[in-house]
Amino acid sequence: MALHFGPVEVEPTRAEIDALQEPVVIEFGTSWCGHCLAAQPLISSALGDRPRTRRIKVEDGPGRRLGRSFGVKLWPTLVFMRQGKEVARLVRPTERSAIDQALAQIDDDSADCRN
Protein backbone atom coordinates (compact mmCIF):
# COMPACT_ATOMS: atom_id res chain seq x y z
CA MET A 1 0.00 0.00 0.00
CA ALA A 2 1.19 3.52 -0.70
CA LEU A 3 1.31 6.50 1.64
CA HIS A 4 -2.15 8.06 1.75
CA PHE A 5 -2.98 11.69 2.50
CA GLY A 6 -6.66 11.38 1.68
CA PRO A 7 -9.01 8.60 2.68
CA VAL A 8 -8.09 5.31 1.06
CA GLU A 9 -10.32 4.34 -1.84
CA VAL A 10 -10.47 0.70 -0.81
CA GLU A 11 -10.54 0.13 2.91
CA PRO A 12 -7.74 -2.24 3.94
CA THR A 13 -8.67 -5.32 5.90
CA ARG A 14 -7.66 -5.78 9.51
CA ALA A 15 -5.34 -8.60 8.42
CA GLU A 16 -3.58 -6.24 5.98
CA ILE A 17 -3.13 -3.64 8.72
CA ASP A 18 -1.88 -6.21 11.23
CA ALA A 19 0.67 -7.46 8.67
CA LEU A 20 2.34 -4.05 8.30
CA GLN A 21 5.79 -4.02 9.84
CA GLU A 22 6.72 -0.38 9.36
CA PRO A 23 5.55 2.38 11.72
CA VAL A 24 2.04 3.40 10.73
CA VAL A 25 -0.63 5.81 11.92
CA ILE A 26 -4.19 4.92 11.02
CA GLU A 27 -6.43 7.96 11.12
CA PHE A 28 -10.15 7.25 11.40
CA GLY A 29 -12.56 10.09 10.65
CA THR A 30 -14.63 11.79 7.97
CA SER A 31 -14.18 14.72 5.63
CA TRP A 32 -17.08 16.61 7.19
CA CYS A 33 -16.22 16.14 10.89
CA GLY A 34 -15.33 19.42 12.60
CA HIS A 35 -13.00 17.71 15.08
CA CYS A 36 -11.23 15.96 12.19
CA LEU A 37 -10.78 19.19 10.26
CA ALA A 38 -9.46 21.00 13.35
CA ALA A 39 -6.90 18.25 14.01
CA GLN A 40 -5.52 18.10 10.46
CA PRO A 41 -2.86 20.83 10.85
CA LEU A 42 -1.54 19.19 14.04
CA ILE A 43 -1.47 15.71 12.52
CA SER A 44 0.10 16.84 9.25
CA SER A 45 2.73 18.90 11.04
CA ALA A 46 3.73 16.08 13.37
CA LEU A 47 3.85 13.49 10.59
CA GLY A 48 5.72 15.89 8.31
CA ASP A 49 8.72 15.52 10.62
CA ARG A 50 8.62 11.73 10.26
CA PRO A 51 8.68 10.81 6.56
CA ARG A 52 9.28 7.10 7.29
CA THR A 53 6.03 6.82 9.25
CA ARG A 54 3.14 5.78 7.08
CA ARG A 55 -0.23 7.52 7.40
CA ILE A 56 -3.41 5.76 6.35
CA LYS A 57 -6.58 7.84 6.49
CA VAL A 58 -9.72 5.75 6.65
CA GLU A 59 -13.20 7.18 6.12
CA ASP A 60 -15.16 5.80 9.06
CA GLY A 61 -18.83 5.44 9.76
CA PRO A 62 -21.63 2.96 10.36
CA GLY A 63 -20.94 -0.42 8.84
CA ARG A 64 -17.23 0.22 8.34
CA ARG A 65 -15.50 -2.93 9.52
CA LEU A 66 -11.99 -1.62 10.06
CA GLY A 67 -13.12 1.13 12.43
CA ARG A 68 -15.28 -1.33 14.33
CA SER A 69 -12.39 -3.79 14.65
CA PHE A 70 -10.40 -1.04 16.39
CA GLY A 71 -13.34 0.01 18.57
CA VAL A 72 -13.45 3.53 17.13
CA LYS A 73 -16.24 5.58 18.69
CA LEU A 74 -15.15 9.23 18.20
CA TRP A 75 -13.38 11.04 15.37
CA PRO A 76 -10.63 11.57 14.71
CA THR A 77 -9.08 8.52 16.30
CA LEU A 78 -5.39 7.95 15.62
CA VAL A 79 -4.04 4.43 16.08
CA PHE A 80 -0.24 4.20 16.23
CA MET A 81 1.11 0.80 15.20
CA ARG A 82 4.53 -0.80 15.09
CA GLN A 83 5.19 -4.28 13.71
CA GLY A 84 1.47 -4.93 13.38
CA LYS A 85 0.64 -4.07 16.99
CA GLU A 86 -1.16 -1.06 18.42
CA VAL A 87 1.16 0.80 20.78
CA ALA A 88 -0.72 4.08 21.27
CA ARG A 89 -4.06 5.72 20.54
CA LEU A 90 -5.25 9.31 20.55
CA VAL A 91 -8.86 10.44 20.31
CA ARG A 92 -9.55 14.01 19.21
CA PRO A 93 -6.00 15.30 19.72
CA THR A 94 -5.75 19.03 20.41
CA GLU A 95 -2.00 19.38 20.99
CA ARG A 96 0.88 18.44 18.75
CA SER A 97 2.92 17.32 21.78
CA ALA A 98 0.50 14.43 22.38
CA ILE A 99 0.88 13.31 18.77
CA ASP A 100 4.68 13.62 19.00
CA GLN A 101 4.73 11.48 22.15
CA ALA A 102 2.67 8.76 20.48
CA LEU A 103 4.83 8.91 17.35
CA ALA A 104 7.95 8.49 19.47
CA GLN A 105 6.57 5.12 20.58
CA ILE A 106 6.54 3.80 17.00
CA ASP A 107 9.53 5.68 15.59
CA ASP A 108 12.18 3.28 14.24
CA ASP A 109 15.10 5.21 15.72
CA SER A 110 13.68 5.70 19.21
CA ALA A 111 12.35 2.12 19.36
CA ASP A 112 15.81 0.76 18.51
CA CYS A 113 17.24 2.64 21.49
CA ARG A 114 14.79 0.91 23.88
CA ASN A 115 15.72 -2.61 22.81
Give a topology summary:
Blueprint: H1 14-19, E1 24-29, H2 34-48, E2 54-59, H3 65-69, E3 77-82, E4 85-91, H4 96-106, H5 108-114
Helix pairs in contact: 2-4
Separation, N- and C-terminal Cα atoms: 28 Å
- Helix content bin: 25-40%
Shape: globular
The strands making up the biggest β-sheet line up spatially as 2-1-3-4
Secondary-structure-based class equals alpha+beta
* Separate helix tally: 5
Write down the secondary-structure element order: HEHEHEEHH
Regions with little confidence, pLDDT below 50 for 5+ residues: 1-5, 110-115
Query: What is the residue-averaged pLDDT?
Result: 88
Q: Please count the beta strands (DSSP E, at least 2 residues each).
A: 4
How is this structure best described in words?
Helices cover 38% and strands 22% of the residues. The protein has five helices and four strands, in the order H-E-H-E-H-E-E-H-H. A four-stranded mixed β-sheet has the order 2-1-3-4, covered by helices on one side. It is globular. The relative contact order is 0.22. Residues 1-5 and 110-115 have low confidence and may be disordered.
Short key terms for the protein model shown above:
4 strands; disordered C terminus; 115 residues; alpha+beta; globular; 4-stranded mixed β-sheet
Can you give me a brief rundown of this structure?
The protein is of the alpha+beta class. Helices cover 38% and strands 22% of the residues.
